[in-house]
Automatic annotation (TrEMBL):
Name the UniProt record assigns to this protein: 2-succinyl-6-hydroxy-2, 4-cyclohexadiene-1-carboxylate synthase
Enzyme Commission number(s) of this protein: 4.2.99.20
Pfam hit, one: Abhydrolase_1
Any GO molecular function: 2-succinyl-6-hydroxy-2,4-cyclohexadiene-1-carboxylate synthase activity
Keywords: Hydrolase, Lyase
InterPro entries attached to this UniProt entry: AB_hydrolase_1 (IPR000073), AB_hydrolase_fold (IPR029058), AB_hydrolase_sf (IPR050266)
PANTHER family assigned to the protein according to its UniProt record, in alphabetical order: AB HYDROLASE SUPERFAMILY PROTEIN YCLE, MONOACYLGLYCEROL LIPASE
Entry annotated with the keyword Repressor: no
Organism: Fictibacillus halophilus
AB hydrolase-1 domain span: 30-273
């Protein structure tokens, strides 16, 4: 279902001159903006877009350092990501939108929702911004340096060819299915200076973003959010119960929120539970207070 989805591609200049690539998938209704995960591209949303097209005008974009967007050496703070998203909305003349994020995309959406209240109708967090990396309610008690050391050699691996790149993903990215196969087939890895093939997002960029995330306390951002929030934790993730406990803390600060657990979901659930994911978001939007439904 996720092949040959029509879209218009746009080049968008952000606040610091970085050129982002945005995608307008058309559709009718209120704007829905999809924000992908760390290391991914906007094409990750292909499995769910068909379920949304008759309900929304759908927009996505490659985050800076990802996909067809530029990859500057600097500019990876959450305020930079908020400025990028604001630039995308302004380019497409969108005043206010529903945001849907995956993993790192949830963090971007949460920060934006907290800091630019008037532009967000609702936020759906797909297994992201639902537990801190560090601190009292975090997953790790190590320093950032110790944390980064665990990823040594993993953030930007070398592949001998595009074929090897695709083969490794098929063997390691489980549960492998046609949605994942389509994404990998359409992904255009970068050619490295050493003649090898690698991910589009460099190891240096990955480290910068991981460093920006590591000490954030998402609860301080949730305290500022007045928009409705849908939490979609992945049931099969090993820290699922810790995430549920963290969500309970976050919900204490929110005027309106829901939690939906789709059975047997993994972290990037759009690839194997696209229909159920879209249905959960549609249901959430249908039950929002009337004041949140009348947007442009």
């Amino acid at each position: 279902m996720n092949m040959n989805i029509p879209f218009d591609e746009h080049k968008i200049q952000s606040h610091d001159g970085t050129i982002l690539t945005g995608y307008d998938y058309g559709g009718s209704g209120n704007p829905l903006i999809l924000i992908h995960y760390l290391g991914g591209t906007a094409k990750a949303w292909n499995p769910v877009i068909p379920f949304f097209r008759s309900h929304y005008r759908i927009i996505s974009y490659d985050l800076r350092g990802h996909g067809k967007s530029e990859q500057p050496h600097q500019g990876y703070s959450f305020e930079d990501t908020a400025n990028d998203l604001e630039s995308v909305m302004n380019h497409f003349e969108i005043e206010k939108a529903h945001l849907v994020g995956s993993s790192y995309g949830c963090m971007i959406g949460l920060y934006f929702t907290a800091m630019r209240q008037g532009r967000v109708s609702s936020l759906a967090n797909i297994d992201g911004a639902i537990i801190n990396d560090s601190g009292e309610h975090g997953l790790h008690d190590e320093t950032l340096e110790e944390h980064l050391a665990k990823f040594k050699g993993q953030l930007d691996p070398d592949y001998e060819s595009v074929e090897e790149f695709q083969q490794v993903y098929q063997e390691q990215w489980l549960p492998w299915n046609k949605e994942r196969a389509n994404y990998v087939a359409e992904y255009e890895p970068r050619m490295k200076e050493n003649g090898k093939v690698g991910n589009i997002t460099t190891g240096q960029t990955m480290e910068k973003i991981i460093s920006e995330i590591y000490y954030v306390d998402f609860l301080t951002w949730y305290k500022k959010v007045r928009s409705p929030v849908l939490f979609l934790p992945a049931e099969k993730e090993e820290h699922f119960q810790k995430s549920l406990n963290f969500i309970d803390l976050a919900k204490k600060e929110l005027p309106y929120s829901e939690t939906v657990v789709i059975p047997n979901t993994t972290h990037l659930m759009m690839f194997d539970h696209g229909k159920e994911l879209a249905e959960a978001i549609l249901k959430f939007h249908s039950e929002l207070p009337v004041s949140e439904k009348s947007i442009r």
